[in-house]
Specification:
Layout: E1 3-7, H1 14-24, E2 29-34, H2 48-70, E3 80-85, H3 91-99, E4 105-109, H4 117-120, E5 126-131, E6 138-140, H5 143-149, E7 154-161, E8 171-178, H6 185-210, E9 227-229, H7 234-238
Parallel strand pairs: 1-2, 1-4, 2-3, 4-5, 6-9
Antiparallel strand pairs: 5-7, 7-8
Helix pairs in contact: 1-6
Amino acid sequence: MRTVLITTPDDLLANIFWESFKVERKKPITKIILLPSRTDVDWSVILKPFVAWKLLRLGGIIKLIGLKVFGISVSIESMCEELVTLTSLDSKSLSREVKKSEVDVLISVGAPIVFKADLLGIPRICSLNLHNGDILKYRGHFSTFWEVMNKEEKFFLTLHEMTSKVDSGVIYDQRFSSKEDTPTFLDLMIWKKAAGGQMLAKNLNLLENVERLGEYTESDAGFCRATYYSFPTIYDVLNFRF
């Protein structure tokens, strides 16, 4: 089964995701495509230190630095047969690169673009997205942030079929954690990375055998209740409390 995974190179916790992934799945991704991050959905360089302090606090910043310096290091090259870096978000260039692989399963993990119908039509089996929230309630950017802002009791991860509509499609798998299990915002993000790697790997193992995933829940009814959230503004960050 040939797999193509699309992501960015800027995830500070990617090592945790890949370490969890490789425990569950021994077969490498056929091709990983790295896309540049979108600068229009991020905070300015000047504000990022303040945002880090507000979301993570001093203890979280120290822990994150420790993870980067002393934590497990997983080379993304070791997780795939081929690594490709594209320098633009041009959808035609991306489609051409995906088509080269005769892909069976297309995967998005934090991809910075919405996949259009022509790209979603390439894979033979399915197109999967790992979404950091419950898509029955949260669509759009940084769902983990908005779950906390809205004082949710549970924090979700969703694996679902991609469609040309943002964060929609049949749900194949979900995991959740509670605030009691993740006492800080960094702990929550770490849990989502580890659980996400495990969840994706286990579902790819299933697809390897049966080429079809069972539907986790009936999702269509939920999308009328889902809210699209934009990337948090600095005002949102000022009001953030974990």
